User: Which sequence fits this backbone?
């Protein structure tokens, strides 16, 4: 069993940050950092390797995606909870560097530094007595850098800086009592850009959010706006404030779904939904309907299309709902729902343009969204 201490979790209040600082200061009092950097080698992932934080079912669904694949996979539960990253390495030290014998002598413990930056600045620090560490809350489709310091009784050995890439899976969130929760970011978009993560989250309703769910949504994910796409009176929709709390910006818009995009009497409501994303003060936004599949999925199709995300990935995002309890509880065949997806995409394609991105932009302009508003959304959401 591996124990670890995360400086990031310390900042979130789970472990006092002073513990990490005190340990690092104590180590520096007696540590000599050796130059034999090649004595620590990455195992999982290997050098410049790719690793996934998704569980095995979600990773297989993403990697081998074909339309309708969720029908065989789903078990009508929340199957999408992430497993996090498990990073492993190996040691090769002479016998005088630890308590073991020969090449496999082990250090007393190791410190693992984990950073988004090549120079290891702003690194999180983990402590382990083994040769592995578990890391949660990472972005998808992103480069990270890590380094290991093996600490002995009289010295320490610092590894080189290793690079890893997190797989282009879904960034899902395990939030007890709130189903179908995932990030709409991480996707590669046209023009070499990428959709920012941690800005727009989608899922099912938050009516039953208890203390733990509220802590995750508000303290860890930083949700500022609850965009409720249900009709007033549907569950707790239309209430005075969000079930997440009075300090959350609550916006309730009765949203169209699928073919409703072409109904003139519903287009003003859809335009209001889109305008929520033009205001940077609203982010991060959690948008949802009842089950997080239909009205939520319709809005996600348009937003991802607006960013130039490939159609296959938009369809994959839509179908991911069937690996959740709320998205599959009505037991509607996946093929039937993909028919709704196709209908929506084909309708948007009637608005002309060389790409689906153009189609979506032209549709939004037809319902009153201006070019300036479109560029404002892209400016906020693309990096």
Assistant:
């Amino acid at each position: 069993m591996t124990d670890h201490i995360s400086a990031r979790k310390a900042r979130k209040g789970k472990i006092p940050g002073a513990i990490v600082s005190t340990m690092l200061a104590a180590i520096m009092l007696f540590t000599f950092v050796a130059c034999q950097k090649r004595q620590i080698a990455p195992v999982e992932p290997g050098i410049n390797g790719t690793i996934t934080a998704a569980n095995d079912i979600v990773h297989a669904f993403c990697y081998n995606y074909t339309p309708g694949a969720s029908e065989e996979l789903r078990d009508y539960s929340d199957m999408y909870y992430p497993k996090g990253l498990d990073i492993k390495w190996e040691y090769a030290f002479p016998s005088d560097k630890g308590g073991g014998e020969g090449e496999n002598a082990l250090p007393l413990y190791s410190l693992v530094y984990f950073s988004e930056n090549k120079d290891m600045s702003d690194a999180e620090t983990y402590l382990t007595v083994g040769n592995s560490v578990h890391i949660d809350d990472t972005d998808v489709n992103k480069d990270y850098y890590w380094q290991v310091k093996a600490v002995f009784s009289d010295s320490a050995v610092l590894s080189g800086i290793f690079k890893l890439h997190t797989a282009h899976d879904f960034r899902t969130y395990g939030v007890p009592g709130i189903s179908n929760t995932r990030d709409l970011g991480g996707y590669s978009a046209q023009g070499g850009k990428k959709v920012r993560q941690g800005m727009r989250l989608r899922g099912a309703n938050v009516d039953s959010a208890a203390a733990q769910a509220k802590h995750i949504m508000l303290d860890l994910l930083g949700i500022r706006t609850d965009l409720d796409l249900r009709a007033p009176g549907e569950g707790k929709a239309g209430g005075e404030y969000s079930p997440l709390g009075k300090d959350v910006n609550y916006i309730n818009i009765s949203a169209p779904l699928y073919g409703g995009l072409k109904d003139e009497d519903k287009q003003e409501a859809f335009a209001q939904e889109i305008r929520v994303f033009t205001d940077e003060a609203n982010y991060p936004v959690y948008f949802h309907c009842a089950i997080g599949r239909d009205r939520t999925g319709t809005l996600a199709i348009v937003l991802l299309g607006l960013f130039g995300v490939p159609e296959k990935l938009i369809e994959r995002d839509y179908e991911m709902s069937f690996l959740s309890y709320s998205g599959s509880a009505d037991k509607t065949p996946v093929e039937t729902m993909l028919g709704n997806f196709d209908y929506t995409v084909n309708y948007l394609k009637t608005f002309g343009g060389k790409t689906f991105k153009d189609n979506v932009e032209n549709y939004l302009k037809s319902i009153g969204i201006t070019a300036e508003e479109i560029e404002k959304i892209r400016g906020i959401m693309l990096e």
Notes: The domain at 182-381 is CATH 3.90.190.10 (Protein-Tyrosine Phosphatase; Chain A).
